[in-house]
Amino acid sequence: MKKHLLNVASNIEIARNIFEMKLTGPGVGTMTTPGQFLHVSVGNHSSKLLRRPLSICDVDLDRKEVTLLYRAQGEGTKQLSHKTMGEVVDVLGPLGNGFELAENDPNRKALLIGGGIGVPPLYYLGKHLKSKGIEVTFILGYQSIEDSFYIEKFNEIGETIVTTVDGSLGIKGFVTDAMMDVMKDEPVIYSVGPAIMLKAVEERAGGLRGYLSLEERMGCGIGACFACVCPTDTRESGYVKICSDGPVFKMGEVVL
Amino acid sequence: MSRLHVSLPGLNMKNPILPASGCFGFGKEYAKWYDLSVLGGITIKAATLEGRFGNPTPRVAETESGMLNAIGLQNPGVQKILENEIPVLEPFNIPILANIAGSTEEEYIEVTRQISSSPQVSAVELNISCPNVKEGGIQFGTHYKSAADLTRKVKAVSEKPVYVKLSPNISNIVEMAQAVEEAGADGLSMINTLVGMKLDWRTGHPILANKTGGLSGPAIKPVAIRMIYEVSQKISLPIIGMGGVSTAEDVLEMMSAGASAVAVGTANFVNPYVCPEIIEQLPKLLDEIGVENISEMTGRSTKQWKTPLSSR
């Protein structure tokens, strides 16, 4: 983990307030583990100080290019959305612990479940799993068709089931409404999204093996400030730090 | 001896820079980024007698040129800090300032007794100013008599010099500083965070689960400078200055106001390398203003300008 100054290759709106930013530079070569994140400075002359934790969506090692998808919601990410080609972005990373790949799972199947802006890291993960010969199915949940993104790209990796809250695309409802059919093959489950969704996924998954990637407001991103803690019954300390112990945890490891 | 060397009670520092408590974990987190031996010292996260989980999340919120935090003194308790955290810093051979907190006088005294007996701890920082827990010491830090009584009792058991960390959330910080000086403090740390709040304008709800939090970052630097300036003229204790410092220029400004050493807090979150970068830049700035030893900077504001510029 290091500080890198990366160049903006592109930064475009791909859905309502959802931006795809591609950054290039030699530091990209270290960003090889799905599920890790970058801590991104939103501007050099900004009154916004804190970095934004953004999941790694994809990495092209040949082009030394990392792709980040983010929602321009708050002032900081709106500033980030104004970055144009050639501008420099200051990032720390890769940070955190990524997904454990279920290479030795006897069923060789994986179910990847993402909600909203939790979807992006599943893309890089899906590519890795597929390269290991694991059959990948995605369930992606969005608010509505206007908020949906990357569905065709996910489809290139594996079967992709879409849910929308308003029913404007795919199955009307939440990601958990689409889980039961896919779980009959007992896949390893990987899920990213808000805590309420992860909790529902964990309950629905029964005893299946799985991994959850948590989201929380962070301060330092490296485990020093104790801002992003989550309770756990499985460690003596009684808590984990999402930024440095996670963001990925085994299902059942943390109290959601 | 290096031109950056400063000497304070218990703290023999090769430069005046140390990370502020709560902004550097227990040090090991930043040891992954650079060699901590470059620092003048290190202030570790607050220790309480028993482990504390702290406040619910969200615990941080960003504000204009600053941030609010309401961590709530999360720590594993003094015994585990002594067993698991402090030994990790031994290879770096730098002074350790141990921040201590508690809910009662007895807790402060016991934590001080235990942590100050560690040969690795150089001094203790009495945290009577954490605004984020109901019983985190602020009840001591806002009443002169309580602060003085606690300082006296902690001094009586401490094997190391005691720095009292003052809260800016009081009406007269000079009187508070005088009270703890008379009670036997060896030095002051100032300032802690200012109590603040941020709301979501859409819902009206506070962003922090604790509702209020401590404001830090560049936004509070002028408050820190003013308070250090006022206090340093009325007392003779050395001051570790802190509050919004993020550049080498900020360090020299704070020393000019009266600080003998300077702690860097929130800036560590923005740039993990900020402390070594500041240390590297200090000699160049001293050259620029023709100052040989950095300790000459302390209190320069009052040494140079006996009368305000406006009346000259």
UniProtKB/TrEMBL annotation, chain A:
InterPro entries: Cyt_c3_hydrogenase_gsu, Dihydroorotate_DH_ele_sf, Dihydroorotate_DH_Fe-S-bd, Dihydroorotate_DHASE_ETsu, FAD-bd_FR_type, FNR_nucleotide-bd, PyrK_electron_transfer, Riboflavin_synthase-like_b-brl. Binds 1 [2Fe-2S] cluster per subunit. GO terms for biological process: 'de novo' UMP biosynthetic process. Pathway: Pyrimidine metabolism; UMP biosynthesis via de novo pathway; orotate from (S)-dihydroorotate (NAD(+) route): step 1/1. It comes from the Bacteria. The keyword Cell membrane does not apply. One of its GO terms (molecular function) is flavin adenine dinucleotide binding. The keyword Iron applies. FAD binds at residues 52-55, 69-71, 76-77. Its cofactor is [2Fe-2S] cluster; FAD. [2Fe-2S] cluster binds at residues 220, 225, 228, 243. CDD domains: DHOD_e_trans. Residues 1-101 form the FAD-binding FR-type domain. Pfam families: DHODB_Fe-S_bind (PF10418). Keywords: 2Fe-2S, Electron transport, FAD, Flavoprotein, Iron, Iron-sulfur, Metal-binding, Pyrimidine biosynthesis, Transport. Heterotetramer of 2 PyrK and 2 PyrD type B subunits. Belongs to the PyrK family. PANTHER family: DIHYDROOROTATE DEHYDROGENASE B (NAD(+)), ELECTRON TRANSFER SUBUNIT (PTHR43513), DIHYDROOROTATE DEHYDROGENASE B (NAD(+)), ELECTRON TRANSFER SUBUNIT-RELATED (PTHR43513:SF3). Responsible for channeling the electrons from the oxidation of dihydroorotate from the FMN redox center in the PyrD type B subunit to the ultimate electron acceptor NAD(+). This is Dihydroorotate dehydrogenase B (NAD(+)), electron transfer subunit.
Automatic annotation (TrEMBL), chain B:
Keywords: Cytoplasm, Flavoprotein, FMN, NAD, Oxidoreductase, Pyrimidine biosynthesis. Residues 4-286 form the Dihydroorotate dehydrogenase catalytic domain. Substrate binds at residues 45, 69-73, 127, 192-193. Binds 1 FMN per subunit. Its cofactor is FMN. CDD domains: DHOD_1B_like. InterPro entries: Aldolase_TIM, DHO_dehydrogenase, DHOD_1B, Dihydroorotate_DH_1, Dihydroorotate_DH_1_2, Dihydroorotate_DH_cat, Dihydroorotate_DH_CS, Dihydroorotate_DH_I. It catalyses: (S)-dihydroorotate + A = orotate + AH2; (S)-dihydroorotate + NAD(+) = orotate + NADH + H(+). NCBIfam families: PRK07259.1, pyrD_sub1_fam. PANTHER family: DIHYDROOROTATE DEHYDROGENASE (FUMARATE), DIHYDROOROTATE DEHYDROGENASE (QUINONE), MITOCHONDRIAL-RELATED. Heterotetramer of 2 PyrK and 2 PyrD type B subunits. Belongs to the dihydroorotate dehydrogenase family. Type 1 subfamily. Catalyzes the conversion of dihydroorotate to orotate with NAD(+) as electron acceptor. This is Dihydroorotate dehydrogenase. It comes from Fictibacillus phosphorivorans.
